[in-house]
Each structure stands twice: as C-alpha cells, then as structure tokens.
Design the sequence.
C-alpha cells in the first residue's frame, strides 16, 4: 500500500503561483509513475500531468503546458507541482495519484483546494 498526502493549496490571485506537494509513504518502491489530476465543481476530473518516478520524465495537459512544472525528490518520496501564471479556470481540487504500472493509478491522495481569484 501507498499513502499519499497533498499539501500547498490555497487562495491566490490570477497571475500568481502556488506549489503543491505530494508526499508518498508505505510501499513507495512499487511506484512507477505519479500523476496530478484536478476536479472543478460540476466538472469531470481532469488529467493535469504525470511524472515517471525513475527517470523524471514528464507529460502535461495542453491546458497547463508552459505554466505548470512537475518535479520529484526521490529521497523524500515527494513530487511537486509548481503552478505559475494561474488563471481562475485553474480553480479546482487537486489530487495526486500513484501508479504501480504505466496503465493506471492505484493510489490517490485526499486532495487539496486551489482557488484562483480574478
């Protein structure tokens, strides 16, 4: 089992920045990839991007490309989501997830609220 705890959400003005963290514990050796998702009120969950645990390779949704950056600290079993140039449409609950394969995510965090005011 892997436990994930997100932190770093909050309220920020449009154009501002936030950094989210996702700390993993438990059987972290089994993690192949970690992803970030978000869900705004009344909307479906949206894939934000992912980072490969071993290589650090990243992928991003078009909606955040150039503004969001993933990184990881393997020693701390933590991934980070640096969000710059935030827009009101980025407002959502952000979730991190961990996968034991490249095909699916098996573990989820509790989510952290990000609110961007205009």
Sequence:
């Amino acid at each position: 089992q892997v436990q994930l705890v997100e932190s770093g959400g909050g309220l920020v003005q449009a154009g501002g920045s936030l950094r989210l963290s996702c700390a993993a514990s438990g059987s972290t050796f089994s993690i192949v990839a970690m992803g970030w998702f978000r869900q705004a009120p009344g909307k479906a969950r949206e894939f934000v991007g992912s980072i490969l645990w071993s290589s650090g390779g990243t992928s991003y949704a078009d909606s955040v490309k150039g503004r969001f950056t993933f990184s990881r600290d393997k020693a701390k079993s933590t991934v980070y989501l640096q969000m710059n140039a935030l827009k009101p449409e980025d407002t959502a609950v952000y979730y991190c997830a961990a996968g034991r394969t490249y095909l699916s995510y098996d573990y989820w965090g509790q989510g952290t609220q990000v609110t961007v005011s205009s």
User: Anything to note?
Assistant: The chain has a mean pLDDT of 95.
